[in-house]
Specification:
This protein is an alpha/beta fold and 273 residues long. It has 12 helices and 10 strands.
Length: 273
């Protein structure tokens, strides 16, 4: 199954464009999780079990798992293995290195951890991305317009006759057409005008849209400009607002309530399109 087929199936099955970022911090875990032998795994698996019928994808951020050393990586591997097969897993790692090193990163992500897609920085060009695009079962989301406040410092610099983030989108269109794997873009909901412009440049590329919730991004813009020309929905990510909805023993139930509220909000906006 191709990555895009898997994403399409999960969106249709769960009627959802919501992605939950699995970014556990030890200092923010509830006592009920901290008492477990493997707190990260117990916490994150409980979130998944409570929300698996509400999402189109999960997005663990590699940094939070690496921060706990080998135990964190083992927990991440076990977590990915426990996520229902129908739901794509996007490893947020922002990979960026030369070709043979990129190939090792791709092997770690796809073969060892077992994820379906990754995020990557396109700064090194196509040879650093080919390993992630070598198989139609996998995808890579390239950083185009990130959600952070200082994104314009570099991304608005001119590359020829257009800002760098637009040039990334143009190149991604070429790379998507020329390789088996799916090439998409990371576009923050905190920049709605840029989101709209990037959809014009790349009508067929899947969008991973962070910035909803704690960062104050626009769900309206994500819904309006996120879908592809053929109707594939965006992957609209929320992390902290969902996974830390409660610090008590009801953390999983609270996460489900928060996810359901956000998913319903997205679906209400979809109905108005």
């Amino acid at each position: 199954m191709t990555f895009l087929t898997k994403l399409t199936t999960s969106q249709q099955t769960n009627h959802s464009w919501l992605c939950i970022g699995l970014d556990p911090l030890m200092e923010r875990l509830p006592e009920a999780a901290l008492a477990a032998e493997d707190p990260l795994l117990l916490f994150s698996r409980a979130i998944v079990e409570a929300t698996a019928d509400l999402v189109c994808a999960y997005k663990p951020n590699l940094a939070f798992w690496l921060a706990e050393g080998p135990a964190g990586l083992r927990a991440l591997q076990d977590l990915v293995a426990s996520i229902p097969d129908i739901i794509p897993v996007i490893l947020d790692a922002k990979f960026n290195d030369i070709g043979h090193t990129a190939a090792a990163y791709a092997r770690a992500a796809f073969d060892v951890l077992g994820v379906d897609a990754v995020t990557a920085n396109p700064y090194l060009g196509l040879d650093a991305l080919r390993p992630f695009l070598a198989d139609e079962a996998h995808g890579v989301f390239l950083l185009a317009r990130t959600s952070n406040p200082s994104a314009p410092d570099l991304q608005d610099q001119l590359a020829g006759d257009c800002p760098l983030y637009q040039q990334v989108a143009r190149l991604a269109v070429e790379w998507h057409a020329g390789h088996p794997g799916a090439c998409g873009l990371v576009v923050g909901a905190t920049y709605p005008a840029e989101l709209a412009h990037l959809r014009e440049i790349a009508p067929d590329l899947p969008f991973l849209i962070p910035g909803i919730g704690a960062q104050g991004g626009s769900p309206e813009a994500a819904v309006a400009y996120g879908p592809t020309a053929n109707g594939l929905g965006p992957v609209i990510n929320s992390s902290r607002d969902v996974i830390y909805a409660s610090s008590g023993p009801d953390f999983a139930e609270a996460a489900r309530t928060a996810a359901l509220t956000l998913s319903n909000r997205i679906n209400q906006l979809r109905a108005r399109q």
